[in-house]
């Protein structure tokens, strides 16, 4: 009685392993940036929910940068010019928009664009 062998060959296994390693390496490069963006989201929600009554844009930027320090957001990631307040009528929104460039391999980079807006509670000053 002969039984038919089934399974993957060594070359097939190495091919699957190479593909898995490639995607694993890609994930190791990208996941920290998305974790950092989650920290930006949390800091923005904290600033928006705290009292913003009478605070200026510079005060909000300072508060947000301070809170992002606790969320392990790198200072070189978000510049103060990336933080703006958009007003429409009586409502105001705190918006952060920034790009992050991640070197991948050789001359290949990832360019990630992150954008988040939260509604501010209260009246924001000048």
Question: In words, what does this structure look like?
Answer:
- With 126 residues, this protein is of the alpha+beta class.
- The protein is built from two helices and three strands.
- The chain has a three-stranded antiparallel β-sheet, with helices on one face.
- β1 and β2 form a beta hairpin.
Strand tally: 3
Cα distance, first to last residue? 88 Å
C-alpha Rg (nearest Å): 23 Å
Helix content: 40-55%
| H and E order | HHEEE
Shape designation = elongated
List the helices and strands and how they pair.
Layout: H1 10-49, H2 57-70, E1 83-88, E2 91-105, E3 108-120
Antiparallel strand pairs: 1-2, 2-3
Helix pairs in contact: 1-2
Q: What attributes does this structure have?
A:
single chain, 126 residues, elongated, alpha+beta, 3 strands
Question: Can I get a quick summary?
Answer:
The chain is of the alpha+beta class and 126 residues long. Helix content is 43%, strand content 27%.
């Amino acid at each position: 009685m002969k039984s038919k062998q089934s399974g993957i060959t060594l070359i097939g296994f190495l091919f699957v392993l190479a593909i898995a390693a490639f995607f694993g390496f890609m994930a190791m490069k990208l996941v920290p940036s998305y974790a950092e963006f989650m920290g930006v989201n949390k800091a923005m929600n904290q600033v928006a929910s705290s009292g913003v009554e009478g605070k200026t844009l510079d005060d909000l930027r300072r508060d947000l940068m301070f809170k992002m320090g606790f969320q392990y957001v790198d200072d070189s990631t978000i510049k103060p010019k990336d933080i703006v307040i958009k007003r429409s009528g009586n409502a105001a929104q705190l918006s952060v928009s920034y790009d992050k460039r991640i070197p991948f391999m050789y001359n290949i980079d990832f360019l990630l664009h992150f954008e988040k807006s939260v509604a501010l509670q209260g009246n924001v000053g000048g």
